[in-house]
Amino acid sequence: MRFQEFRVLNETEGALSAITQVADLANTYLNPFGSLGKDTGKDTGKDTSGGIAVPGRTVSTTANADIKAIQDSNFNKKLEKIANALGVKASDLLAIMKFESRLNPQAVNKYSKATGLIQFMPDTARSLGTSTEELYKMSAVEQLDYVYKYYKQNKLKPGSTAGDIYVNTFYPAAANQGNDFVIGQKGAPGLLGKRYSQNAGLDRNKDNTITVADVKNSVARFV
């Protein structure tokens, strides 16, 4: 399934509403429960990832991260500052936002309530010192502060490619794993099966597994 890319930063409110519906459909197909966060790596039968919010889960926070150096009123200039601060390409960060939200800061996944440019999960938003409700009210320029905080929190490595950045966005626990590392598998018990069923759209080669390589390849057409 392919969707036309939308640039929404200067669109009218009516256009934003229509684009939000398309972005929501895209996210429902590709990642119906929002990007996954960290988990323990231990299959306890309870998913502690960001894909399903777990009450009481301890989340590291960068709510007080210094963002003064990345401030700019222009989206592209601010994105460039963030990219330089993280040691990655601005075009690669932009590819993640196109894939996750079609650059719509008001994009909301109706199942998981993941919101915004990189589809912040509710517990992720809280760990960054905000909420999905507050993120929804922000402009794209304002949300870039939290994009920066997110990648600082998850220790994105300088020199990361678009694929690496998306693994960090989608499932940070696999960020240091090889391309063959299996994140989800069709019919598998526990978390492997759950991750596959929630994100089957990433299995583009239909081999019944979602690997790190699959996650990386999913953003290739947006780079």
What would your notes on this structure say?
By secondary structure, the protein is mainly alpha-helical. 41% of the residues lie in helices and 3% in strands. It contains nine helices and two strands, in the order H-H-H-H-H-H-H-E-H-E-H. A two-stranded antiparallel sheet has the order 1-2. Helix 2 packs parallel to helix 6 and helix 3 packs across helix 7. The protein is globular. The N terminus is likely disordered.
Key traits:
9 helices; disordered N terminus; two-stranded antiparallel sheet; 223 residues; mainly alpha
**Backbone CA Rg:** 16 Å
| Average pLDDT taken over every residue | 80
Number of helices: 9
Helix content: 40-55%
The fraction of residues in strands falls at under 5%
Unreliable sequence segments: 1-34, 36-59
- Helix/strand order, N-terminal first: HHHHHHHEHEH
Structural class: mainly alpha
For the secondary structure, the number of strands is: 2
How would you sum up the major sheet?
A: 2 strands, antiparallel
Shape: globular
Cα end-to-end separation: 17 Å
Order the strands across the largest sheet as they lie in space.
1-2
Secondary structure topology:
Layout: H1 13-30, H2 75-86, H3 90-101, H4 122-127, H5 132-137, H6 140-153, H7 162-170, E1 182-185, H8 190-198, E2 209-211, H9 212-217
Antiparallel strand pairs: 1-2
Helix pairs in contact: 2-6, 3-7
Tell me briefly what this model is.
With 223 residues, this protein is mainly alpha-helical. The protein is built from nine helices and two strands. The protein starts with 12 loop residues before the first helix and ends in a 6-residue tail after the last helix.
